[in-house]
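Module 6 notes. Inverse folding takes a fixed backbone as the condition and produces residue identities as the prediction. Think of it as a translation problem where the source language is geometry and the target language is the twenty amino acids. Below is one complete input and output pair. Work through it position by position during the lab.
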């Protein structure tokens, strides 16, 4: 049963300055539940490993009341990994919501558009051709993702960027980059190829504070910027002509939000390698929970964070610490979801 606007619990809240803000109670509840779920799984995940720590002791240690051994394990070894997982998942969820809204297509995610392949190509160039260290690989992935995003935008431009053309160009670019990545692997020696394959699986193993801070700063800058422009993005889903009539500077908003989405996706990939399907599934799951039209930016962000830390916990719980990269788990779950999405969209006559 479809929920109409009249059926939804939407409240108007008046601020001290006299500004009236509309609050969707269901969407707010979904965000709160997802945040609580992500934090709960994070605490459990910190306590999971070769040296298990009860959740109560994890909380005590995080509050500064643990013993020296637990403080080292929690604060230096496991907390950075969990924080990277939360930030990467949030970045991918938000980036996916932006791309799906801009393209007006549930398949218009960074996975499909080739941004992950672009970041992978940048990382492989550094690994295979330059034998770069971890910092250089991260920089190469970031540059590769940004260059791919710019190429897709320019190739899709024709008196503006429209969703159908954006998705088609992205699929084409992704195919080309997949071939390039395969070539780079074939010309590398066995040691570099092994190192590249490990990076390409998408793993949170070995993450430390050097990956946390850049992601945290980037999210602190881009997330508010995206939320400020959420109204324009919501109007753009009604079509460019309607958006222009309502006073939205369509191309300016589109370029700004696409740049933010590319940066979020490229930075997430640079931090832990390509983690597939989180950007595709998180916005759709969030929309089904909120039953709300529009981009659902905050619910998608929280869903992405919850999905990734849950996948990491599942991989450790089932296979043991560091035995199965989180990218493999998200790939399996996301592949099943993609098949289900294609079937339902086809039955609905939308593809």
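Target side of the pair, the amino acids:
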């Amino acid at each position: 049963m479809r929920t109409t606007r009249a059926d939804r619990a939407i409240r108007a809240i008046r601020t001290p300055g006299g500004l009236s803000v509309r609050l969707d109670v269901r969407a707010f509840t979904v965000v709160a539940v997802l945040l609580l779920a992500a934090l709960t799984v994070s605490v459990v995940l910190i306590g999971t490993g070769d040296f298990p720590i009860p959740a109560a002791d994890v909380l005590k240690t995080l509050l500064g009341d643990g013993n020296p051994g637990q403080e080292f394990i929690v604060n230096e070894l496991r907390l950075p990994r969990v924080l990277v997982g939360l930030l990467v998942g949030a970045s991918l969820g938000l980036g996916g919501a932006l791309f799906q809204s801009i393209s007006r297509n549930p398949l218009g995610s960074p996975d499909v558009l080739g941004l992950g392949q672009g970041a992978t190509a940048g990382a492989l160039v550094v690994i295979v051709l330059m034998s770069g260290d971890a910092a250089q690989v991260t920089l190469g992935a970031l540059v590769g993702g940004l260059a791919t995003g710019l190429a897709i935008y320019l190739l899709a431009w024709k008196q503006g960027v429209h969703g159908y053309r954006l998705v088609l160009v992205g699929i084409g670019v992704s195919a080309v980059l997949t071939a390039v990545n395969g070539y780079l692997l074939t010309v590398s020696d066995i040691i570099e190829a092994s190192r590249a394959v490990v990076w390409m699986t998408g793993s949170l193993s070995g993450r430390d504070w050097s990956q946390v801070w850049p992601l945290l700063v980037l999210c602190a800058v881009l997330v508010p910027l995206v939320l400020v422009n959420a109204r324009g993005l919501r109007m753009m889903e009604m079509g460019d002509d309607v958006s222009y009539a309502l006073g939205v500077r369509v191309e300016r908003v589109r370029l700004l939000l696409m740049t933010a989405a590319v940066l979020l996706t490229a930075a997430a990939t640079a931090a832990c390698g390509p983690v597939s399907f989180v950007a595709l599934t998180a916005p759709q799951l969030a929309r089904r929970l909120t039953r709300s039209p529009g981009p659902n930016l905050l619910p998608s962000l929280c869903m992405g964070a919850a999905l990734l830390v849950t996948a990491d916990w599942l991989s450790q719980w089932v296979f043991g610490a560091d035995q199965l990269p989180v990218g493999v788990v998200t790939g399996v779950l996301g592949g099943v979801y993609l098949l289900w999405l294609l079937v339902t969209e086809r039955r609905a006559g939308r593809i």
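Reference fact for the lab report: Residues 1-7 have pLDDT under 50 and may be disordered.
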